[in-house]
Specification:
Blueprint lengths: L1 H15 L1 H7 L8 H24 L9 H33 L6 H11 L1 H9 L5 H24 L4 H34 L4
């Protein structure tokens, strides 16, 4: 229970006072403790998502039994979470570097690793019907704030530049996705003979 207890204390402090947490956190090697912290956060999220499948029977493909679907959800939450976090931290770090960040990729990865605790809290919220999705959306916005506070401290950036570094990859990826969807839709309409 040692690491789980430490994780819970850190997650609570991170959520209650992101500035205080990041100011006092000296385990900044993103490939060490923060990665372990993130893996545990994604494990908690995966367990709670699997529990939601078992309790509510949601997101179960007709070809999969409930236990198999829960197991797939658990494993994919951890592996997908870590891979997504590593890639996301890389994209954010490009903008951190362009905006004058003082430290390397491992510092950005550490911020993303610690911020992953919010995904575990969102998974708890998702267990509550109706209110859970609303709380999850609010936590997603709060996660942006937490990540920006972490970058402000770990990368020695202004808070404004930190927000820009967090949001620009989302905006760019969203714009690319939108353009691709419009292109595919226009191509489909052209092939089917429908007026554009």
């Amino acid at each position: 229970m040692g690491f789980a207890s430490s994780w819970l204390d850190s997650a609570r402090e991170l959520i209650e006072s992101p500035s205080g947490f990041f100011d006092g956190e000296d385990r900044r090697d993103g490939f060490g403790y923060p990665l372990k912290f993130a893996a545990f956060s994604f494990l908690v999220s995966g367990v709670l998502s699997a529990l939601r499948i078992v309790v509510y029977g949601t997101s179960v493909e007709s070809s999969l039994s409930m236990p198999v679907a829960a197991g797939v959800t658990l494993v994919s939450s951890v592996i997908g979470g870590i891979i997504g976090m590593i890639i996301g931290a890389g994209l954010i770090h490009i903008f951190v570097a362009l905006l004058g960040g003082e430290n390397g990729y491992s510092e950005t990865l550490a911020v993303m690793g610690y911020s992953s605790a919010i995904s575990a809290v969102a998974s708890v919220a998702n267990l509550v019907p109706l209110i859970g999705p609303l709380v999850s959306v609010l936590l997603a916005f709060y996660s942006i704030y937490v990540q920006a506070k972490g970058l402000e401290i770990f990368q020695e950036l202004s808070f404004g530049r930190s927000i820009v570094a967090v949001l620009l990859p989302v905006v760019i990826i969203g714009a690319v996705f939108f353009v691709l969807m419009v292109t595919v839709l226009a191509s489909f309409m052209a092939l089917s003979g429908m007026p554009a």
